[in-house]
Amino acid sequence: MTTRGEIRLALPGKGALETATLAFLAECGMKVSRNNPRQYLARMKSIPDIEVVFQRATDVPLLVQNGDAVFGVTGYDILAEHRGYGDEEVDEDDEDDDLVVLTRDLGYGACRLVVAVPETWIDVSNCADLWHLSGYYQTHKGRGLRIATKYPVLTNQFLRQHNISHYKLISPHGALEAAPLTDTADLIVDLTETGTTLRENHLKMLEDGTVLRSQACLIANARLLHQNEQARRVVETMLELMDAHLQAHNRSLLTAYMPSESLPVIQRTCEALNEQLHAQGSELELRVAVSEIAGAHASGHYTLTGVVNMGGSAHVLLETIALLRHAGAMHVNLTPLTYRFAQESISVRSLRERLKRVQ
Question: Is this model's pTM higher than 0.85 or not?
Fold first, then answer.
């Protein structure tokens, strides 16, 4: 909250995460208005009660936890390091921490925190091999492995899970990928999206060396939401829009206009088409959307509709169009969806259940 009563939303203030977050919010119908990209404060015209503050992504969890912001967007890797546990370490519903995750994956900023070793370590391909190597270093070199990372908490937890104890964590300046090349460290634990940068610096990921999978996430202060009804309504509004937009991702509304003698005939045609679509593995389910519409007196015109996943195979899509044409469709339209609202927002329901447990 702020001194004037606005509900503060903390967003990443620089880099790719800032750009992607602003684009995502705009796609959800919540465009952030800021006259100068150097400004730290901004507004959201569609939800005027919100004051947006831009901060470093690494500072967002602390701002939210301390109540300086009601909610915020950051990377899940940053949140996990701040809280001191990852995906499976602790069930946050059993915790008394004010900091809660509203949406774990916002659909962008995907990366992995991984253990990467030099390609020349041909005998090291998994964590068991790394355990043997750490013992060798301790016995024959008088020291443990030197591991460069900016995630000491998560790295320590991961290594303990694999019984690796002979190591030392270091935090070198600059790019971590260079640490083994300059002999600053023996290996690294770092973020990667595709692994390309690691390969270009002659590093390889261990087969079982994924410490954490991360995306951008939405977090909030549960205590503030429990105490402030206005803030709770604002957050629920954002969750509704985000959920509906994520549900609409890669989906389009298919509309097929079909001539038919009567409603029972078009209904039988629709049932036959759904059986054929199911047989070809399509997720599309058609429905007779409209009763007979104005048209020629000799024959009625009906509309079949359904939602198509456009992230699938183009071949399957064209097979679907062919089925509709064969059944007599005069026109088939595909309209990209912006929102797809379910009977209720799962995120809003989860938040309300979580707030019931706030003391």
Answer: yes
